[in-house]
Specification:
The complex is a heterodimer of chains A (95) and B (252). Chain A is an all-alpha fold and 95 residues long. Chain A contains four helices and no strands. Chain B contains nine helices and no strands. Chain B starts with a helix and ends with a helix. Classes of the chains: A mainly alpha (95), B mainly alpha (252). The interface between A and B is medium-sized, with 25 and 32 residues.
């Protein structure tokens, strides 16, 4: 039986969707690697936020707009804020 | 244990993990291929049964509403935990805070940040309410809307001062709203039981038009309570963390 992802008609050619999805998967992988590799903490948090946006767009391209909304607000905004606040609190001890 | 022994243990464990991982991967269904009966079945009946065109919300707040109660209380308990750890309790005395990095310079907020934050606050509140109140019609919902509402309060902090943030979100009001949100969801379920229905069974009229904002009975109401619960929980968490940071910055 066909599934939602396969049976929902796209308004663009399927090949174009494939290109979009693969591009986004590569971008998300690159973003995640960048988050791990960046050592400066504040920059790392900013990269984490960018990674959240990338992940949100990925979810949109995979037909999960509801998850996109959650990821945008949590992953791209609130999680970085909470980490930044924690960094401001513990900064001295870490240095 | 010598480093060589450790490396051997790692290699054995890593090989085992890789083997099981590849075994699992080889058994996965094809990309985009969902073999279960649940998805297609619910897609056939959901709109007709609930009058909600946001089928994800229909599943979250109706078919699997009981799961979502649990998820909501996870957030409730998490926010409560933050408050318990960080707030001053009876019998505790707050030691005056010491800025251990007094030499770092705290740059003043630039007027560009203030301006952008100020401009965005109104639209973000609007978008948050819109999301929280349209769970039944499209892929929004109380959770996303609630988080967005909470970010509006963070924008108030960015555009002004912590004191303004506190004035807009006093702790006792945030606590009360969070409790009402979490309790409201559970109370909807209990109301259904009081009417002799199953817990969280939709007992309100479903409306005439699928996809109308006023349709789909309790789904919209539950989404509203989830929205205010989530908003209050995140405001509470951010406020507690901010208070900790600023105590240090101003204390001493």
């Amino acid at each position: 039986m066909n599934t939602l992802a396969v049976s929902t008609p796209y308004t663009v050619p399927v090949a174009m969707m494939d290109v979009l999805q693969v591009t986004l998967l590569v971008l998300v992988a690159a973003g995640a690697t960048a988050v791990v590799l960046i050592r400066d903490r504040v920059r790392q948090v900013l990269m984490l936020s960018i990674y959240g946006v990338l992940l949100a767009v990925l979810f949109l391209a995979f037909q999960a707009p509801d998850v996109t909304l959650s990821e945008l607000t949590i992953g791209a905004v609130l999680l970085p804020i909470v980490i930044l606040l924690t960094l401001a609190k513990v900064r001295k001890r870490e240095q | 244990m010598t480093p060589a022994q450790r490396r051997w243990i790692f290699l054995v464990a890593a090989t085992g993990l890789a083997a099981f991982y590849l075994w699992g991967l080889s058994g996965l269904p094809g990309f985009g291929n969902y073999p279960g009966p649940y998805g297609p079945a619910i897609l056939r009946v959901a709109v007709a049964q609930t009058n909600a065109t946001g089928v994800v919300s229909a599943i979250n707040f109706d078919y699997r509403g009981f799961d979502t109660v649990g998820e909501e209380f996870i957030l409730f308990v998490a926010a409560t935990g933050v408050a318990i750890v960080l707030r001053m309790l009876r019998g505790e005395r707050e030691r005056s805070a010491v800025d251990e990095a007094a030499d770092r310079d705290v740059p003043p907020t630039s007027s560009a940040v203030r301006m952008v934050a100020l401009l965005f606050t109104g639209p973000v509140v609007l978008a948050g309410w819109w999301l929280a109140s349209h769970a039944q019609t499209d892929p929004s919902g109380g959770f996303q809307g609630g988080v967005m509402l909470a970010t509006a309060f963070v924008l108030i902090y960015l555009s002004g001062e912590f004191l303004v943030f506190k004035r807009f979100s006093p702790a006792d009001i945030t606590d009360a709203v969070e409790a009402v949100g979490a309790g409201g969801y559970a109370a909807i379920g209990v109301s259904a039981v009081a009417m002799g229905l199953a817990y969280l069974k939709d007992f309100l009229p479903l409306g005439q038009v699928p996809g109308a904002v006023s349709s789909s009975g309790t789904i919209a109401l539950i989404s509203f309570f989830v929205g205010i619960e989530v908003a209050a929980a995140f405001i509470l968490i951010v406020a507690e963390l901010l208070e900790q940071t600023l105590l240090i910055r101003q204390g001493g």
